[in-house]
Amino acid sequence: MLDIIGKKKWYFLISLLVIIPGVISMLIWGLRLSIDFTGGTRTILLYPTKVDKQIEDFTRVGFEDSKVEIVTMQASGERLIVRTKEIDEKKNKELMSNILRKVENVRQEEFETIGPTIGNETTGNALKALLVAFVLIVLYIAWSFRKVPKPTSSWRFGICAIVAVIHDVLITVGVFSLLGHFYNVEIDSLFVTAILTVIGFSVHDTIVVFDRIRENLRHSIGLPFAQVVNNSILQTLIRSLNTSITTVLVLITLLLFGGPSLQWFLVALIVGIASGTYSSIFNASALLVVWDELDTRRKRRNV
Q1: 5-34+118-302 and 40-114 share one fold
Q2: What does the pLDDT average to over 199-215?
Q3: Mean pLDDT over residues 180-203, rounded?
Q4: Are 285 and 232 in contact (CB under 8 A)?
Q5: What mean pLDDT value characterizes the chain?
Q6: Less Cβ around it within 10 Å: N or C end of the chain?
């Protein structure tokens, strides 16, 4: 029989090795925020051919002639996504006129301006949404598992679920910090939506295992807690993997054949769901066992 709990230290180590690079990246480089958070103007230019270095250079000259400061410029097929300091409609018309002098048959597909006040409001709302989600998850799980048999308690289930969720959020955010530094990938409001979706998926996957642990505790009186947990994980393993794999396959299909506007949203979901599947199987339940072992040692010392 597969002994997942017996090798829990190795699974914790794997999680640590995956999380550390992202945390270091966030501490050094942070996240590359889109105008949804910082304010500014985003312009998407559509060209008749795939954007190459020459087209980028000519376009950059058009922005310089209009005295518009470029923050980031990123090519995606026939599209060039440019983020600049905030400009108005009049300045935008002047800009397009200068670009058309440098490059023919270019069309402006999108022009969006967001003020810094709205950007700060979006940042604040995003942090509030994450905090509220964490609190509600702990309270809900603690209430749902209030009749769980000994030796554990409902609050332990809630706290361990949140630790697993934080694991998934750190991995997803860390990956995007690295992508932002090396590939200029920006996070926008869709990224916040992806994080909240990952939190929901991760908690759902974890609760499936936790619920089986609760049921097995009622019917496995006398068995060591670690063994009950390990049996519960094995009983739900195939279901968790099947659910996650089918979801990820759909997301990969959308990533391959969907539009560029959803590209990084889908990547965030794929990374988060993969991490959530790992944490629900190898981390969340193992944390319950670690907590129980520490509690048992403390009681023995007090005897």
Answers
A1: no
A2: 91
A3: 89
A4: yes
A5: 89
A6: C
Please name the residues in contact with 273: beta carbons below 8 A apart, sequence gap of 6 or more: 198, 201, 244, 247, 248, 251
Q: Cα-Cα-Cα-Cα dihedral of 60, 58, 179, 133, to 10°? A: 60
Tell me whether the omega of the peptide bond preceding residue 149 falls within 30 degrees of 0, making it cis: no
Q: How many CA atoms lie within 13 A of 192 on its CB side?
A: 17
| Opening angle at CA 298, ends 279 and 292, nearest 5 | 25
**What is the sign, positive or negative, of the torsion defined by CA atoms of 225, 226, 231, 235?**
positive
40-114 under CATH 3.30.70.260, yes or no: yes
182 vs 200: CA distance, rounded Å: 29
Predicted confidence (pLDDT) at residue 247 exceeds the cutoff of 70: yes
Q: Domain 5-34+118-302: give its CATH code.
A: 1.20.1640.10
Dihedral pair phi/psi, residue 110, rounded to 5°? -150, 140
Task: Measure the CA angle with vertex 190, ends 82 and 51; round to 5°.
Answer: 30
What distance separates the 2 farthest-apart alpha carbons in the chain? Answer: 85
Is the whole model's pTM more than 0.90, yes or no? no
Domain residue limits, the chain: 5-34+118-302, 40-114
CA 95 – CA 103 distance, rounded (Å): 12
The 10s digit of each residue's pLDDT in 104-150 is 889 999 998 887 665 677 778 878 888 888 888 888 888 888 888 77
Residue 32's SS3 state is: coil
